[in-house]
Amino acid sequence: MAVTTLNQIIKxxxxxxxxxxxxxxxxxxxxxxKREEALNKSAFHQALINSGLVKQIKHPAYQPxxxxxxxxxxxxxxxxxxxxxxx
Length: 87
Prior knowledge:
This protein is mostly helical. It is 63% helix and 0% strand. 0% of the residues are buried.
């Protein structure tokens, strides 16, 4: 299956302009760099586990930050108040 897809992509390269091929090359290079970094990181984590230095690798759970709404403050700005309190 992968060989068929690869052959189709190679055939489509003939239809692309030079600039499009250059752009595709840049995208592929970025993709390869990210894949290589991920593989290196994974290998490093596995080496840590195999050596017994760590028992497990915990990955942080990223939660999207909710949209923050600005509030209106009467009087001095917060930065002015902080500066005054430091004196």
